[in-house]
Amino acid sequence: MLTTITCGALCGVSAEEVKVEVDLALGLPAFSIVGLPEGAVRESKVRVLAALGNVGYAVPPRKITVNLAPADLKKSGAAFDLAIALGVIAAAGMIETASFKQMLIIGELGLDGSIRPVPGALPYVLLARALGCQSLMIGEENAREAAVIGEVDVLPVANLSEAVMHFTGEQLVTPLPVTPYLPENVANEVDLCEVKGQAHAKRALEVAAAGAHNILMIGPPGSGKTMLARRLATIMPPLEFEEMLEVSQAHSVLGLTSAARPLITARPFRSPHHTVSDAGLVGGSNPPKPGEVSLAHNGILFLDELPEFRRNVLEVLREPLEEGEITISRASGRSTFPASFNLVASMNPCPCGYFGTDDRPCSCAPAGVERYRGKISGPLLDRIDIHVEVPSVRVKDLSVESTAESSNTVKERVLNARQRQVSRYKKESFSANGRMSLGAINRFCKLEDPSRLLLERAIERLGLSARAWSRILKVSRTIADLDNQPNIQTAHVAEAIGYRSLDRKGP
Ligand SMILES: Nc1ncnc2c1ncn2[C@@H]1O[C@H](COP(=O)(O)OP(=O)(O)O)[C@@H](O)[C@H]1O
Ligand SMILES: [Mg+2]
Ligand SMILES: [Zn+2]
């Protein structure tokens, strides 16, 4: 007799459907699992047999074959145990198989029949939703994490017996109520108004937030670059619910969510140290796990002291910056992780930190300054629309009581500018100026003659490189949106030209 149960396997940060087929046939008693199982899945047999025995279900003395389909999907982990055990019991005729319809069943078994938590509760419930399942049966400890979307009933079970009794109808499991999430009105821990002076840098940050532009801050040590970066999220639009689910999946498979905090509700801010490996940054290992870029999905990736990062590490950033996702290929298969983030980077103007500042003389040799700046490759700079200089804040600015705008005030303007973009790009694959392709830039960033002339002259006079042209157009579009103007005007272009300091030839 053949029983089929819907289960799932983690692939990257999402879960894929796996059908657990259990067949009981006459023949010498045996138990085999087929369908590309890896280590922990193969051991499933041992756990399932022990658990069945220990909770008092005699395993029928038959030839038991468990097939995990599709066969070409690599399966790892122990999340199939519960489905396999229930399949054996059902194949033996103790449970009506019809009750498995429209249900996703996930859980690792202990030898005593208890159900252990598995990584990735959120991807599993999202799979259940995608498959149109009515319910997800999952271990008690995972259940709260899974009960964040209303469309799927989450059935928590503590052990195999509870699961069996649900299907026999002896004792139905009550679905867990949906956990309300509280993203609104959580007070920001930090606020832009705490940064004194630095009006120019704050404005650049506002433009970056309004158009989803990547930004690089250049300034001497202690000028407040890190402080500014940490406040970018406070002026960005709040996450939409689906965005929360996307970013929480990567956290969930790495075990960074919990029953108490099942969803990432605020824009993530990740700031990996410059010693991070390429695998740590973009993901890796075997099977591939998401890296910092995926934990920063829909949020901010802050690379402090950019030139200190290893070259190969900066190289691997190009794909996510371009595609908004990253694909990792291993012998065991390919995984694609979401990685659409806003890049914020900082650097000193030179190795000693004081080139071109009034604070103190630079002690670096000119070649040293050149080499330091040269560490950031052209292709990476190409993907950073805004460069802004952050000079040391003057003592007189530090000592006065701040009258600076709060993050919420700035956010109002950002939201307004984003709204304009969303309506303009209704029919496009992107919704923010910073995400425009070259073709889109030509269509949406038309300049009238005076603005065009200004830009041509600036490129010539300041010796800006060719790549500056399209960056300036995109940023001008955002500045016009912040200004509530349908057309890009000369003043908008002029401001955008000011955000290309690293494009000037020579240090
Ligand atoms: N504009 C500023 N307003 C208020 N405090 C500042 C400002 N700039 C720097 N500071 C103070 O100096 C410290 C160092 O700033 P930080 O952001 O780490 O500088 P950087 O990253 O540029 O080296 C901050 O923690 C803050 O206390
Ligand atoms: Mg810093
Ligand atoms: Zn120097």
What's the topology here?
Elements: E1 2-11, E2 14-25, E3 30-34, H1 39-42, H2 44-54, E4 63-69, H3 81-91, E5 103-106, E6 108-109, E7 115-116, H4 121-131, E8 135-139, H5 140-146, E9 153-157, H6 160-168, H7 199-211, E10 215-218, H8 225-229, H9 241-253, E11 269-270, H10 278-282, E12 283-284, E13 289-290, H11 292-295, E14 300-303, H12 311-315, H13 318-323, E15 325-330, E16 333-338, E17 342-347, H14 366-374, H15 378-382, E18 386-389, H16 395-399, H17 407-424, H18 438-444, H19 449-461, H20 468-482, H21 490-497
Parallel strand pairs: 3-4, 5-8, 8-9, 10-17, 10-18, 11-14, 14-17
Antiparallel strand pairs: 1-2, 2-4, 6-7, 12-13, 15-16
This protein binds adenosine-5'-diphosphate (ADP), magnesium ion and zinc ion.
